[in-house]
Amino acid sequence: MVMTLDQYRNPACAEYVGNILQHVGQSKNTWLSDSRKKAVKNLSQVGFPTQHHEGWKYLDITPIFNVNRQDGASLFEQGGVVEAATARMNAYAVSNYVLINGVWGNKLGKPVVSGTQSYHLSGQTKMSEDLRAYLADSVAQEANPVAMANGMQFEDGLCLQFEKKAVVDECTVNVIAYAKDGAAEIFSRILIVAEEDSQAKVVIRHLGAGYGSYLDNCVIDVILKERASLDLVLMQDDTASGTLLSQVNVHQAKDSNLQWKSFIVNGALSRSQMNINLDGEGAVFDFKGVCTFGQTERHYQHITVDHFHPLGTSQQVFKSVLGNQAKTEFNSIVYVHRNAQKSQSHQLNRNLMLSDEAQAYSRPQLKIYADDVQCNHGATTGQIDDKELFYLQSRGFSKNEARHVLIYGFVKEIIQTVPDVEVAKEIETVVSDKLTKLLS
What we know:
By secondary structure, the chain is α/β, with parallel strands linked by helices. It has helices spanning 5-8, 14-24, 33-46, 62-65, 81-89, 129-141, 145-153, 386-394, 399-415, 421-439; strands at 70-71, 97-100, 103-104, 116-120, 158-162, 167-178, 183-194, 199-209, 213-224, 229-237, 242-252, 257-266, 269-278, 284-293, 298-307, 313-322, 327-336, 344-353, 359-368, 374-382.
């Protein structure tokens, strides 16, 4: 059956799109006006996706956007918000930067001084013209309609720039989503730039706070210049009524190296779309992810990698532990273009099912247009091995203890790749606590 354009446009979201278009003219970020006008034109043409789109096949976004939500940024000025955010962060180590409902709270963190520049993304931003131009271009050319909505509505955010040859061993960003009551819509935006020969370790925590429901529409742009190295750990610890829709845009220059780890622990619904552009020869992208859901939570992990030049490497390992009626999707596609000879790409998705009702959708894909490459992909889905379970029980473990040991062993190899010992311990605690609840 041939699909018509209207079947790809979501009519149920038409009112929401109309409200976005109205907001553009009211924005304080006037330096983005031209880019936002282009984005308005694009969004008007494509609309929001339906499930006829391959990338949105398993997620109906209509219920997400057919909700009257208040502007999350406006809550920042209300009493009790900072206190609630601070209380939420107390369970974690001190943060260098804090975004609350998309607004950078300067006084809440302890900024990194050596080798790092930080800027607001508000109308009075002090970013260089080059960085402004990149961000404006990102807004104008965004293809994901949900991320377009972010580009047309964010009013603040954070830019981190690691200076040339700088070595930054610790940089932590807490992204707080807060809703007191009712429903809130939040637009979080982060731009990370690693200059030539810089080395940086970054931790981003998505944390939910408050008792209301929220939608955090988050976009993270990452630029790695030549020979830059960035190790980024992202942890998602949203509330049981929190929704996180995130877009990650990455551009890597020659011999740059991005090590990305994602730990999706809590949240009602999340979707992550990562677009990785290996724009220079010898660029390396390494992704490792873990999702531990045990009720009715859903996570959709989408990754697109483009190898444009020779000698590039991309590796992906994504593991899910699913109980009750939880769902995950791993949809990854790697393009190895004609000039990208001697590229390497490996994709692996493994799912551990703790319930007959849990669902895992797996679709690793390769599109290869070069003839001298090393590429492979694989996926496995199964349950706990009865023989391993029996062995541990024969050694004195209770059934629940044995299950916990085996499940934790399944995800441990990902946690062990976190380079910072304290951060690894923090993640280990959060994941282990979640597994205990999952098995209770």
